[in-house]
Amino acid sequence: MVGLGSRCIVPHAELHFYPTAEQTMGMPAIQRDWTADEVRALQDESRPWPRYELIDGELLVTPSPGTVHQVAVGALLLLLDPYVTQEDIGIALPSPADLELQPGEITQPDVFVVPLLESPQTDRLGTWADVKRLLLAVEVISPSSVHTDRVKKRRYYLAAGVPEYWVVDLDARTLERWTPGDDTPTTLRSMFEWRPAGASAPLIIDLTSMFDRIWTRRRRMPF
Fold first, then answer.
1. Are 52 and 43 in contact (CB under 8 A)?
2. CA distances from 38 to 14, 57, 78, 172, 190 (A)
3. Nearest Cα to 94, choosing from 106, 107, 110?
4. What's the CA gap between 151 and 157, in Å, rounded?
């Protein structure tokens, strides 16, 4: 691996990007397993994309997402963060954020909720690598990321102890809700409740209204 300032070149690793499409591409470069250190070396803090993830030794490369994807991420954050803040149980964040919930593997969920500490840290500020638990992980799928999000990432997050994993399908206007031990998801289209550990009251989400807002805002964008 050759370093050039904050950027790195991985010899012989062919990473093909298609900027006109919103997709997730998983490919083991030159048929080998990658390490967490190698993937972290690919990250460039000056730009959020492409996004690099590592699951089971396979490097997953995600180019910049489409506009409606980002509108959906914003809508989810506006629903989740006020609730977890009011309940004083967590903070909702978007990626980029290279999390290492299990040793040697790196993921960047579209939206996630990190549980709060009982008291603020005073000695140092940690890094993403220090995050070992999530209350929730959410992926907003596109046609080419269906298998990665519904199968590979779902297995990873639930095995890592994440209590809930959501897959948001904008075209179908559904939210698939997975919890550990589920063989199939609960597919939701209208109202549902989320009550994470430590919450005194549930968050009630009207999915019909959420999807209406997402698509209405996207259609009012000037491009």
1. yes
2. 15, 11, 34, 37, 42
3. 110
4. 10
**Bridge partners, residue 115, by sequence:** 90
Contacts of 70 (CB under 8 A, 6+ apart): none
* 126 pLDDT above the threshold of 70: yes
| Rounded Cα gap, residues 31 and 53, in angstroms | 16
Q: Label the pairing between strands 174-178 and 203-206.
A: unpaired
The string of pLDDT tens digits covering residues 40-58 is 777 765 566 688 899 988 8
Query: Residue 102 CB: number of other CB atoms within 10 A?
Result: 16
> β-strand 2-4 against 186-188: which pairing, if any?
unpaired
Whole-model pTM above 0.70? yes
Q: CA nearest 79: which of 209, 199, 181?
A: 209
Tell me the backbone φ, ψ of residue 196, rounded to 5 degrees: -70, 165
